[in-house]
Amino acid sequence: MTDAGAKRPNELSITEAASVLRSGQFSVRELFDACFATAEARNSELNAYREFFIDAETDAAIDAAQKRLDTEGEKAPMLCGVPLAIKDNILIEGRIASASSKILENYRATYDATVIMKLKAEGAIFIGRTNMDEFAMGSSTEHSAFGATKNPHDVSRVPGGSSGGSAAAVAAHTVIAALGSDTGGSIRQPAAHCGLVGFKPTYGSISRSGLMALGSSLDQIGPLTKTVADAKILFDAIQGNDTLDSTTIPAESPYEKRGTPKVFRVGVPYHLLDSGIDPDLRANFDIALQKIKEQGHEIVEVNLPTSSYALAVYYVIMPAEASTNLSRFDGMRYGLAKRGKTLLDDYVETRTEGFGEEVQRRILLGTFVLSSGYIDAYYRKADAARAVLTKEYDDAFEKVDVIAFPTTPSPAFKFGEKSDPVSMYLEDIFTVTANLTGMPAISVPMGTVMREGKDLSTGIHFTAPKGADDLLFTIGAAITGETLLHGH
Question: Is 186 among the residues known to form the active site?
Answer without folding.
Answer: yes
